[in-house]
Amino acid sequence: MRGTELKLSHFLLLAACLGVSAALCLEWEKKLEVRPAGRDILRAQSSEENEEEEQAFAPTETRLESGVSQKISRSGEIFTARYNFINFDKDRISITFGMTAGEYNKYLADYGYSDAEITALRDWREKARAAAWKTATAAPGKTEDRKAAGERAVAEVETDYDTRLRALFLSRGFALRAGNTVECDMPAIVRRNVKIMQTLALALQKIAVEKGYDSEELIGTVLSLVQTAIRYKIPPAIENGTHTGGLLPPARALLSGWGDCDTKTALLAAILGNWNTAKMVGVAVPGHYLMAIRRLPGKGDMFVRHEGLEYVLLEPAGPAWLEPGQVSRTTTALLGGGEGYQIEPFF
Fold first, then answer.
1. What is the pLDDT of residues 20-51, one digit of tens each?
2. Is the Cα dihedral 257, 268, 63, 283 positive or negative?
3. What residues pair up with 313 in beta bridges, in sequence order?
4. How many beta carbons lie within 10 A of that of residue 321, not counting itself?
5. 10 Å Cβ neighbour count for 324?
6. Residues 222, 196: contact at Cβ < 8 Å?
7. Neighbours of 125 (CB within 10 A)
8. What does the pLDDT look like over 243-278, one tens digit per residue?
9. Which is it for the CA torsion 93, 66, 331, 196, positive or negative?
10. Is there a contact between 167 and 176 (Cβ–Cβ < 8 Å)?
11. What global pTM score does this model have?
């Protein structure tokens, strides 16, 4: 009789344990619910066709001079891009930018992210959550205490996952925004490319010294380069399995010879960032991106205010030849439109 009672008590204990285990498993299944996959926000894509966007932001009057050209080549392990253009002083300028194949390949690998990387990180999270829950709920104690311990353990994994995910995006020039969306981190892209553009900036500064340019003429020279010598073309959102955010990083833009409005803005700001007196902000309007530089506006200059200071607008998109303070009619309308504009400081 006693043996029967023992068997019965063991059975009841096993049933209770299985019941607790089942309840905890149900809780674990709830913890395994994964948030929807993030989606990319493409900055400044105003249309599906390159020509449509180009016409929208270019003025009716464009420059007629010849002398704007580009030559992109590879000799051995050296990639080189040579640009000829005309600045606002009507001077013909030639400039060259180059990188070794090793430098360039590493540079390209440091921008953009793949679905495989995100999947690997999510797989790690799932396994880490399962392990954390199992370990925490296996400890002796009341069911509610074990459940609370499991929830805390899973929450710690979630925090770790979020940190790792944000770090991955940041290291590749992206940011995770509200609503689990992903977009190019323009300030971060600009800042990380300033040093890479240093040699080009010094070459442009040497030209400015030789020709007796002041700071405004130097800025205008760099703006002319980006507007007219870099062809306008919208990058794909995904290229060879890599999410680009619809942007080419500055060195890629120079060694490819093309880019859209946000690509050209990042390039322009990264070059100008080599002169630490230049305070700049990015300006996002619906479907378009440009920038502004801190200085007092002259007569007729278009500008925005940020923290009580005026920033004169620069329109890098091209192919229009627009001096600092001038923007296209479409941009003017968007700046004054009901949706307004957003400002993000580059430095």
1. 433 443 343 333 333 334 455 565 543 333 44
2. positive
3. 292
4. 22
5. 22
6. no
7. 20
8. 999 999 999 999 999 999 999 999 999 999 999 767
9. negative
10. no
11. 0.82
